[in-house]
Amino acid sequence: MPGENLSRDEADERAALLSVDGYEVVLDLRSAVGDSDEAVRTFRSETTIRFRRTGEGTSTFVDLIAPAVDAVTLNGRSLDPAVVFDGARIALDGLADENTLVVDARCAYSRTGEGMHRFVDPEDGEVYLYTQYEPADARRVYATFEQPDLKAPHLFSVTAPEGWTVWSNGAGEQDAEGVWRFAETAPISTYITCVVAGPYHYVTDTYTRALPDGTELEIPLGAMCRKGLAKHFDADDVFLITRQGLDFFHDNFDYPYPFGKYDQAFVPEYNLGAMENPGLVTFREEYIYRGKVTQAAYESRANVILHEMAHMWFGDLVTMVWWDDLWLKESFADFMGSFANAEATRFTNSWVTFANNRKAWAYRADQLPSTHPITADIRDLEDAKLNFDGITYAKGASVLKQLVAYAGRDAFLEGARRYFKRHAYGNTRLADLLTILEETSGRDMRSWAKSWLQTSGVNTLTPAVTYDAEGRITELAVVQEGGELRPHRAAVGLYRRTPDGALTRYARAETDLTGARTVVADLAGEERPDLVLVNDDDLTYCKIRFDEGSLATLRAHLGDITDPLARALCWSALWNLTRDGLMPARDFVSVALAFAGRETDIGVLQMVHAWTKSAVTLYATPEWREEGGRLLAEAGLRELRVAEPGSEHQLTWARFLAATSSTEADLQLLEGLLDGAAKIDGLDVDQELRWALLSPLAVHGRADEARIGEELSRDDTATGKRHQVRLLASRPSAAVKAQAWAQVVEADTLSNALVEATIAGFVQPSQRALIAPYAEKYFAAIERLWDERSIQIGIDVVKGLFPGLQDDEATLTATDAWLSAHESAAPALRRLVLEARDDLARALRAQACDRLAA
């Protein structure tokens, strides 16, 4: 991987030297099918780049990662590939003012989800291709100047196997010779170009809209998936969200969708949630649901669809200069996804999900040693790859929500409109956006940005309340703690119990919180509340704490809070207290088991389930884990039996029970649900739920290889294969663990999806002793792995196999020893290990807190 890196300094030098007029890319993908040796299967890629020298100097390089280059021609002059190509770059000397470069190469199909990924469907043997490039893998498919600020039009033509269809960013058609030719794109960055090819199932629709000038905008819509998933594909709902999103963004952005058609491809073995390639967005195919799922799953898919659509403007039309300003696209898209979901679709409570789910990701990331400002210092591509994180996405989106409260909604949206018109098809930096927002809001955006975008860390906000003899508030202040004391536009809500037992808000004040202590004068004189909720309505980004009376109220009455957003904020705050070692894990579990059954928001309930499992697995003392697990399973069974038959709550509790079962009685029930001997009224045990029920049976040694194979025979699909691989690796056997370790660490034959599945099976909390011997092997292997594997596989292995379940001081010491002995290791690798170390140290601190409650 190090030889494939590109530094910011190198990118700056190249951008100062040249500008690109256009690419012509010719691909021959007929080799995707047939009997070729999988290890050496390649395709022909011929790239013509026209570019101008605009700065001083006559030498540069073009990026290409390929097994072989057959010919390189610069301005009609033939260059020797053996001399100019080093496996990752082609050196170019003797540049003229105007240049034409032609590179004829043999590029490799990918099994890692990077570049041109090739997938063979085990169900029917069909081959499917798609590309994925961000941040810098277009160079695995064609020769490029692989940096976001060298935008150019792209013209693609593709020869594919007979019977296939090919899609790219522009509209395309097949000519008489069988070659697929596509319309030239607008100027775009290389990392958002795209090719999808294969026998995909394809559905079409159309979006139309009257424009202010009296014309009509018509956007052809398409959606595709593998043929094997066609029977599950609810394209109508995908198109519904797509049309609602296009309406929302046209209403608010006042800039017509600029990229012609709008295809959406759901593709196999995808590393990301989705990718915003203009005109051809790609998604992981898990967003096509094979069984019954909750509305939270549909909301999540809608959010991703709208997130990627927002990128058509934030990121594709206007693009950051370099990855330092990745937030200019990802933070905005993450914010706009929830914004559009709440205002344009049926998912009107999406801000509840944002507060409870997305922000949890941000809080964790912002407390790691690798936390960074939203506008980060990205030295190279390895830094960029790791910066697609909770800071850039969820914290950035949270800060934008704070910006809307600070500057005003109208000023924010008017700023966006001016930003698109002023910088269309160009590249920007932070200052470009701030200048426009100062114009529209009249506020000092520089000071705001310095506090919120250019510093790291999360503040805590805690109420401090005093009362008079009659129980009325004499003073309510908000105390702010943290390294950088930021300005917060926030609301403080007062809640009390009503005669019918509900916990409702009776007073609210919105104000600017500054410095270490701010008095909220508007709440003086109010009657004593049962609960003081700082950051009511979730306007700002912070961790909230409670005064003693409020915390006591939540322990006894959290489920009585009537407002779903307020309730979600309280759940999140209690979880942060647990992660921070301020609330014993068993206390959080107690609150969760008391009130989770009353949680009406299904997305919040699913997060509470995840948190309670983590509380028992990671943050409770080892001595209490068995009892804690038993309590979770008992609650799961109890709530499953009382849930409304056929409801999404029933399904959610069934999955929770499967994830927490370990006793003989629980496992027998799961076996009965699988073989039909047991029934629960209204519970549809479809294929996806069958795999969930079978998982604990494999983990606890009650489902052997033959039994898992039987389930695969029922579901002999790509998804079924991933489940089978995961379950095989999860069995409680030393031989099984050795085989799984060898497949991931010692060999390099598994695809990215199967690497992920094997790791997920290998790491089981109930098998700590069984996998303990691999801690030492992990530290001995990771630097070699980082050097030998692609960065995506390197990340998956280093994060996934870290011995965090060996939660003792010895593992912490071993981690510190590795870090001390490998100070010169790749910074990205060290960052991953440092993050894992921090999670382990946090778990040990939380266990110490929990031990005090024993």
Could you walk me through the main structural features you see in this protein, from its secondary elements to its overall organization?
- This protein has 854 residues and is α+β, with helices and mostly antiparallel strands.
- It is 43% helix and 20% strand.
- The chain is built from 28 helices and 28 strands.
- The strands form seven sheets. An eight-stranded mixed beta sheet has the order 5-4-7-2-1-10-13-12. Strands 15-16-17-19-18 form a five-stranded mixed beta sheet, covered by helices on one side. The chain has a four-stranded antiparallel beta sheet with strand order 8-9-14-11, with no helix packed on it.
- Strand 8 and strand 9 (127-132) form a beta hairpin.
- It is globular and about 90 Å long.
- It starts with 7 loop residues before the first helix and ends with a helix.
The share of residues in helices is 40-55%
Strand content: 15-25%
Mean pLDDT: 95
Structural class of the helices, strands and pairings? Answer: alpha+beta
Q: What coarse outline follows from CA principal-axis ratios?
A: globular
| Count of β-strands | 28
Biggest pleated sheet: 8 strands, mixed
Enumerate the strands of the largest sheet in spatial order, edge to edge or round the barrel: 5-4-7-2-1-10-13-12
Distance between the termini: 48 Å
Number of helices: 28
The radius of gyration is: 28 Å
Low-pLDDT parts are: none
Secondary-structure topology with pairs:
Elements: H1 8-17, E1 18-28, E2 42-53, E3 60-63, E4 68-74, E5 77-79, H2 81-84, E6 89-92, E7 98-108, E8 115-120, E9 127-132, E10 154-159, E11 165-168, E12 172-174, E13 179-182, E14 195-198, E15 201-210, E16 216-225, H3 235-253, E17 262-267, E18 274-275, E19 280-284, H4 295-311, E20 319-320, H5 327-344, H6 350-366, H7 381-386, H8 391-407, H9 409-423, E21 427-428, H10 430-441, H11 445-452, E22 460-467, E23 473-481, E24 488-497, E25 503-513, E26 517-519, E27 531-536, E28 543-544, H12 548-557, H13 564-579, H14 585-595, H15 602-619, H16 622-642, H17 648-660, H18 664-675, H19 687-699, H20 705-714, H21 718-729, H22 734-746, H23 752-762, H24 768-771, H25 774-788, H26 791-800, H27 809-821, H28 827-852
Parallel strand pairs: 1-10, 16-17, 17-19, 20-21, 22-28
Antiparallel strand pairs: 1-2, 2-7, 3-6, 4-5, 4-7, 8-9, 9-14, 10-13, 11-14, 12-13, 15-16, 18-19, 22-23, 23-26, 24-25, 24-27
Helix pairs in contact: 3-4, 3-5, 4-5, 5-8, 6-8, 6-13, 8-9, 9-10, 13-15, 14-15, 15-16, 15-17, 16-17, 17-19, 18-19, 19-21, 20-21, 21-23, 22-23, 23-26, 25-26, 26-28, 27-28
